[in-house]
Each structure stands twice: as C-alpha cells, then as structure tokens.
Design goal:
The chain is α/β, with parallel strands linked by helices. The protein has 17 helices and 14 strands. Helix 1 crosses helix 3 and helix 8 crosses helix 10.
Length: about 450
Amino acid sequence: MNVAIVGTGYVGLVTGTCFSEMGVHVTCVDVDEQKIKALNQGDIPIYEPGLEMLVRKNMKSGRLQFTTRLEDTINVVDIVFCAVGTPPDEDGSADLRYVLEVARTIGRHLNHYVVVATKSTVPVGTAKKIKAVIEEELEKRSVKVEFDVASNPEFLKEGNAIKDFMSPDRVVVGVESERAHKLMARLYKPFMIVSDRLIFTDIPSAEMIKYAANSMLATRISFMNDIANLCELVGADVNMVRKGIGSDTRIGKKFLYAGCGYGGSCFPKDVKALIKTASDVGYPMRVLQAVEEVNADQKLVLYHKIVKYYGGEDKLKGKTIALWGLAFKPETDDMREAPSLILIDLLLKAGATVKVYDPVAMNECRRRLGDAVTYAHDMYDATDGADALMLVTEWKEFRMTNIEKLLQMKGRLVLDGRNILDAEELRQAGFEYHCIGR
C-alpha cells in the first residue's frame, strides 16, 4: 500500500514513520527544501523519543522517503494525508490556508482515485471545503476523477507519540463512502491485531471529536488548578483532594494534577478554535471560556508567589532566578505556549537575571530568546548562586534533588510549579518551599 503524508512537522513525521514501520510505502512531502534535505540525510527536526531510529531504519529499508514535490507522487498513492499546520488566527479560528493549498495541489495533478484524509486538526466543515477546492481544480482542467475525503484526527501525546500511534487506544475515521471506508480499514488493520479500536463516523463528527477530546483534557487541568488555588486559601491539600476524587471510577485519575498551567501545540489552539467555531454559529462555549481564562491566570501563579515573597516587583531587580524546565511538558523540546515563556518575560521585565536549564529544550529556547537568558550546563549549574528556584516542567531528573548541591544557592526560596519535589526534605534543609494547592 502506498500513502503520501503532506507536512513533515510533528504529526506528519510520526505518522509517516509509523505507517512505514508497519510495511506501508510512505512518501513524506514538505515545501521546506531545507527540512527535506536534512531529513534525507537522517537529521530529525524535532525531539521525540525513538523517532530518529525509526526514521533511519525505514529510510534504509526503502519504505520511507522524503520529497518537496507532491505532484510526483500523487498518482502512485492510495491515500494522501494532510498533516500541515493550522495555526490560530488572531480571532482564535484555525488558519486553513495550508490545508486548502494542499487540496489545490491535489486537484491540479490528480489522475486516479485517492482518499484525501486530514490529519491536521481542523474545524467542523473543513472536509467540505477541501472537497470543493479539489473539484474546482479538476473542473479547471476539464477532467473527472473520482476521489473521497476523510477525517482521521490524531491523538498523539508528545513524548509518547510512537507508542500512541503503534498501539492506539482508538483510531477515529470519518468517511462518506464505502470505498473510502474499506481503504482506511485496510490501512489500519495491522494496528488492530490485538483489539479492534477503529471507530468509523461521519466526517463532521470525526472533525469534532479531536477538538472535544482536547478541550475535555484542558478542562480537567483548569478545573484542578482552580481547586488547587482554593485549597491554598482554605488550608486543604490538592494532592489529597486529587486522590480522593480520582478514586471515583466515574472521574478517574488522569489529568487531575495541579500545576502552573498547560501549554503546547494543541490544547491552547484547539480550545480557542472550538470557542470560535461555536461563536460562528451563535453559541457561547461558557465552560471553555472559563477554562482558557483559568489557564492564562495559572501561568502567572509562580510569578505572583515570588513577588509576594520578596515584597513587590521592584524587589526582583538584580535577583538571579533559576528555572528548571522550559518545554511545556517532559519528553519534548516543544515550547509553544509554555508557562516558562510567560515567567521568563515577567522576570526579565522586573529586572531579574534568569538562568535556565532543560534536558532537551535549550536549543529551542536559544532560537526563541537568544541571549536574553543565561543557559546553564545542568540543573545545579542553574541554581548555583541563584536567589530562588522555579520548577516549571516535571522532568524526571528534577524529582530527586541533591540537597548539598542545591545549598549552593544564594537564597533559599524554591517554587515548585508541578508539585514533584520533596517538601519535607527541602524544609528540613532550610529552604522555604512553595508549591501549587498546598
């Protein structure tokens, strides 16, 4: 079976690589010539555990290749996946210009039946737009070629994407014809050997499922952060509250951890896009509006704590603040919408010096911030001589601290934005420890 994946970002590269690992012949397409050149040399533009090895393995086998020319491959594939970016516009809506440009390219060169499936996260109704654009281009050429559109949203977690794709808890496919149904079922059959988790729906429902899923997870995070802030005010412990409510099987334990806000490429963008979709049809998403507001405020919590500790923003001038963690979550170098960016900006504006360390996101931070911050060699180089420490990302290596090395700090303030440090150990060593919701 032959497929093309248009877009070699996070979703496209993982998707193409995993399909090729299952024996599918995959051509990944991107307009970025430098990226394609690098990929053909085995250089991976993103950090994802296990991905580089699989890319090189399947390139060597001949099942995975990279090109800038969709027109050269469109008529030798059975399915074309669109996995290009859908960045948010200023009003929060998803920008579909890249998705529709892929549709135009397909319409200009298509000569045989294919399924055009969207992997990109797109609003309800996008499949109709894709179909209309392809038909318009075919009419310009005065040709009739059968094709189908489908929606196949991705549910990959950064840092665990390979496992998520190879052993999915569900695969959602929205189709409108039996022919497309059979082709997509054949493609995913190798992933369903253990149990069939393939869910076929109509296309609008498939498009909605992705937004609804991410919005629900974002809602759980903001809900727990709201509860955590209340816990601090009334003297409760959010960790105990989490265990208590998470043991209810109707609620479950996942995504109930309090922290300093969510970020990343999906949750912020998808919540905004769903709010805008609803607004366009005259329906206010009141819960999601609150979710977004809570998250924006939560990214400021550590800053408010440090300002309160020192007695005002002006007292931060000249202080050195260490930041552990830059990525929005562990096991990725992705800093999109990361709380660290908000904190760094506020600290720098207050006149503080910021020393940062992250196991994999240092280069991404340099790309974004240049020399605005000081880059540490390791976690204790960051804290050496610092007045305060802020833990922003819950990397595993931060969980077990070396107290002797931490005592090289000038100050004794530790602000734990993810509730993973040993509070008792730090307090016994003379540190003033603050976290979220306790």
